[in-house]
What does this fold into?
Amino acid sequence: MGKAIVKIIVGLVIGAGLWVATMAFDFPPVFRWLFFGYAALGTVVFLILDAPTMKVMSGGKALVSLLVFYAILCTVYISGASLWPQYDPEDEKGKIAKLLKGKPNLLDPWKAEEVIARAKELDQKAKELTERIKALGAAQAPAGQDAGGPGAPPATTGAAGGDFLKLGEEQWQLQECYNCHKLKGEGGKKRGPELDNIGTLLPQDEIARKILDPKSYKAEGFDAEYEKGKMPDKYKDLMEPKDVQALAAWLATFKNTSVNTPKPIKMK
It folds into this structure.
């Protein structure tokens, strides 16, 4: 009897220690009970080792006892597993972001290599497009006047304007905006609104503001997506200012009133 009491005390101490440890690491309550249950189960196993030997069974009685034992075991494990929380990648990303908060020089642990490669690709593309815009601006400047000087044609008019809008369309593709937004009948709209009429609802400057600060506007009917931050706050780091303006200018040209683009609600 004394040995049994000692084992029960040890089991309770281990269970309490696991409970406190899981609380310290912010484990969900179900995991706290799970670890405590394992400690309790281990205690029961060690108590059984000191229990009197059972009578030997054979024949049909032994078979029935074995089947009943496995049925109980399966029921306990299946019931316990059904209480476990489902895996949610967004929750896991949030936990990792919390652990990495305040630590310098740490990229997104999920897609660090991809982010670096895409940043280099975008930087090279931006340089190429900048050179093209400069060349077109020089060709459009009046005689005896430097490109970009007083009287030079605006960047959004004539041939240069067409190239500027082309840059915006290329940014739409490079940034993969179509993954969340539907435009011209293509892309998805589960995480973001359809944008075929966005030019009617928002001017170019406000579209650019929304790109740089996703929390500045909320699309009507997309409350849950807004709260979860489905639109990432990364474009201010990945895009040059001219790229943002080009994308905003291109989107501002879409004014198809037959498409029910959700109304933007200014949040700040």
